[in-house]
Amino acid sequence: MTSVRRRARGETGEIRAGTASGTYFHPLIGAIVREYRQRYPEIVLSPEESNTLLLIARLQAGEIDLAIVRPPLSDHRDLALEPLLDEDMLLVLPAGHPLTSLPAVPLAALARETFVMFPRALNPGFYDSIIESCERAGFTPVRGQETPHLVASLLMVGAGYGIALVPRSVNRLHVDGIAFVPIEGEGPRALASLAYRRDDSSLPVRNFVAIARRLARTGVAARDAAGAPIVLESGIRSPGISSPGARKQGSGVRNNH
């Protein structure tokens, strides 16, 4: 009977949770997962990483229970969205690029640069918001190599394929041969929301949403923002939430907070 009562209170069970690429680098996401684990230690949290478009489709099909996605979304029928993040974006340049000497770079200065971007099909709304920001600055970006993985885009910038724009929280990643530089003036924003089905009565899901809503509204991420950096050295190390033992990369990276 005890196990039945615990399940009825949402203290046991499983949540299938998806995350859009790169959202997990923000300290708020780690804070949400940690608190949920502490309060509901017997809930099995089964994570998966994918792109926003596929996560929304899987959520609508009932294949996952919730997902952290990147708005704006073209189709979120039957889904509720809980806003979590609203970050500015940083410019990623190859180390030694002339623009790294500036404290901040206006978007207009990037008119002749080649952009490393994700394929538009993975998240048309977010992709278009970046293009529109460049067009407001007076140019249409030159698009070069594409990659669906945010971490891979950093490595490609370091290898000389072009430049990239990434959410600010990604500067916790330390990669050889790149520099993070702020954008001067108005630039694109990187939003993240927690999506779940409106008609989902699952208590584990509702409890997760409640914790996420509270931490997002109380600004817990601002207090946790000094988390240890995540180091990517030669080759690639699997992305994830940073650990207390993560080491700082000494050369080739300018870290602007």
Describe this structure in words.
With 257 residues, the protein is an alpha/beta fold. It has two domains: 2-85 and 191-224, 3-Layer(aba) Sandwich (D-Maltodextrin-Binding Protein, domain 2); 87-189, 3-Layer(aba) Sandwich (D-Maltodextrin-Binding Protein, domain 2). It is built from seven helices and twelve strands. The model is unreliable at 222-257 (pLDDT under 50).
Parts with pLDDT < 50 across at least 5 consecutive residues: 222-257
Specify the CATH architecture of the largest domain. 3-Layer(aba) Sandwich
CATH 4th-level superfamily of the largest domain: Periplasmic binding protein-like II
CATH domain class of the largest domain = Alpha Beta
Helices, by number, come to: 7
Helix and strand content put the structural class at alpha/beta
CATH fold label of the largest domain: D-Maltodextrin-Binding Protein, domain 2
- Approximate helicity band: 25-40%
Number of domains: 2
Beta-strand portion reads 25-35%
Radius of gyration: 19 Å
User: Could you spell the SSE succession in H and E letters?
Assistant: HEHEHEEEEHEHEEEEHHE
